[in-house]
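Quick one:
INPUT:
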């Protein structure tokens, strides 16, 4: 029995063999194969190659797109960026092994995106870290600035001054542009309207 191998190749894509066993002796093609029509040990090749090592690169590409899609629906920034990092890593694996040669342009950009996401995650975690305030700042934070992270509030407080004022001190005058913002942390203030 003789075999003819028929195949094709698309530029930029690995060769995909299409195998056929053709009997040239006019027999049943089953010589040595138990009369199974000549398919014998070539079932894997005819069915797409279960032992094809490239299939794992294709799987990693599929996983990359699934994770990227999941990252789009995340509201937590850290989880979003972690999914984006894993998706980029899986995509880099795909780009490395799926073609005849690695797609280095895509791999390099993927590495850059991973670095950017890692930096952004570290910034978010830095902003979320616990910062201790003295009792006055803690009260101001809880009453008026709780929408900020504690680190953001700490940065804002670097521009603030805590001062004691004498009774009767005028804080602002109606009709004049104020150049300061006063937050009263202790005591009271009166609004006086003059006719």
């Amino acid at each position: 029995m003789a075999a003819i191998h028929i195949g094709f190749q698309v530029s930029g894509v690995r060769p995909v063999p299409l195998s056929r066993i053709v009997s040239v002796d006019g027999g049943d093609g089953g010589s040595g194969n138990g009369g199974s029509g000549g398919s014998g040990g070539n079932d894997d090749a005819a069915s797409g190659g279960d032992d094809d090592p490239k299939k794992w690169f294709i799987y990693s590409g599929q996983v990359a797109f699934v994770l990227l899609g999941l990252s789009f629906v995340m509201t937590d920034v850290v989880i979003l960026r972690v999914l984006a990092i894993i998706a980029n890593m899986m995509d880099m694996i795909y780009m490395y092994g799926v073609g005849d040669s690695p797609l280095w342009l895509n791999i390099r950009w993927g590495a850059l995106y991973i670095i950017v996401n890692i930096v952004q995650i570290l910034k978010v975690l830095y902003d979320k870290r616990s910062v201790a305030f003295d009792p006055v700042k803690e009260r101001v934070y809880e009453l008026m600035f709780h929408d900020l992270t504690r680190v953001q509030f700490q940065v804002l407080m670097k521009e603030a001054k805590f001062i004691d004022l004498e009774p009767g001190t005028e804080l602002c005058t109606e009709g004049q542009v104020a150049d300061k913002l006063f937050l009263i942390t202790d005591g009271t203030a009166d609004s006086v309207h003059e006719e």
